[in-house]
Design a protein that fits this description.
The protein has a domain of 71 residues. It has three helices and five strands; from the N terminus they run H-E-E-E-H-E-H-E. It has a five-stranded mixed beta sheet with strand order 3-2-1-4-5. Helix 2 packs across helix 3.
Length: 129
């Protein structure tokens, strides 16, 4: 009896690679890449710090519990975001002081609302120690 010789059979990968590339191109064409909207900020130029008149400006403090506090003069009171936005409309200068442990998103929410609902307001940011 003779022994059969076995040959190692390898599949042809060329059609598989073609299909993978076609699927890749298809998904690249039909995918919708979201373009996130951005908030354009005018950052201060390097130089001397701007002098802020704290007696005439409205200071908004965001504490670590995400509560909005308004400080005008020496008085300090907790206020909701909607009534805060209404109060800012009449102001020319606003100082936003945020706790360092807050998320960036919380501060940007307030800045976005200020920008959307008021014209010509100067905003100064500072960190709450």
């Amino acid at each position: 009896m003779r022994k059969k010789k076995y040959q190692l059979m390898t599949p042809d990968l060329t059609p598989l690679i073609d299909i993978v590339f076609l699927l890749l191109i298809f998904f690249m064409i039909v995918s919708n890449f979201n373009k996130y909207t951005s908030l354009s900020l005018e950052l201060p130029k390097i130089g001397l710090p701007a002098m802020v008149n704290e007696t005439k400006s409205l200071e908004i403090i965001i504490n670590k519990n995400k509560e909005y506090l308004i400080k005008q003069g020496e008085s300090l009171k907790i206020i909701e975001l909607q009534s805060l936005i209404e109060k800012i409309k009449n102001e020319k200068e606003v100082i936003v002081t945020a706790d360092k442990s807050l998320l960036y998103e919380d501060v940007m929410t307030l800045l976005g609302n200020i920008k959307a609902n008021s014209d010509g307001v100067t905003v100064t940011l500072s960190a709450l120690e």
